[in-house]
Write a structure and sequence with these properties.
253 residues, Rossmann fold, 5-stranded parallel β-sheet, globular
Amino acid sequence: MNTIQNLIENIEKVIIGKRSVIELSVISLLCRGHVLLEDVPGTGKTMLARALARSVAMDCKRLQCTPDLLPSDVTGVPVFNQKSSEFEFRPGPVFTNILLVDEINRATPRAQSALLECMEESRVSVDVHTYDLPKVFMVLATQNPIEMAGTYVLPEAQLDRFFMRLSVGYPSVEEETRMIYAQADSHPIGHLQAVVDEADLLAAREAVRAVHMESVRGPHQRCHPSASAVAFGCQSARHLSVDPRSPRLGLAA
C-alpha cells in the first residue's frame, strides 16, 4: 500500500538505517498494538517515537515519567467548578492518538498501572465514570535497560500490553556519517511533515483485518512459542503466550 510505504519512507528521513525497526513499529500501529522501545541511551528511541507521531496527522502527546508521577497525572482528574458547583473531568495526556511515554520504568508501579486499562480496552475509568479514548490510540514507550537504580521494572503482566518490544541499536559508521550531514544545518525532525491522516490509517487497519490466514495445525495442537515472540516481542516467550482476551490475537498469529 502506497500510504504505508510513504509513512515508512517519511520516518526514514529522521531515523537512518533502521528500516526493520520502523517497519515493525508501523505494523504495530496497523494492528492496534503498542510498542516498547528498549535500548541504551543515544540510540534514537525517543526520536523514533517522535518521528512516527509527526508523520501521522493526528494528535500526539508526551508523558515524561518520573518517580513522583501520579495515576491522575496520566488519566485525568475531576476538578470542582465553583461557578457551576459541579465536578468537571479534566482529561489527562492519555486522551490523544499517539502517546509517547518516555522512560516508563522511572514511574512507580502505581502510576504504570494507570496505563493498563488504556492500553487494553482503550478507555479510562475515573471515579464512577468511564471515558472512551480515540479510535486510533497507540502507546510508544521507551526505557533504558541499564542503570536500573531508581527505576521500577515492568512486570510480565504489563509487558503483555505491548504488541512488540524492540531494540533500535547503534548505527554503522556509514549511517552515522549520513546522520551528521543530515543534521548539519538543523535536525530533520523539525521539518518533518505528516503524510498519513486518520482516514488513511483507519482504511489501512481495515485492510489488515481482511487478511486471512489458513490454519495449518490441528485443533488441539498448540501454537509454537516463536509466534508469541513475534506477537509481543518478549524474550521470555518460552513460558508465556499471547493473552487470549486480546483483540490483537488474530493479527498476531
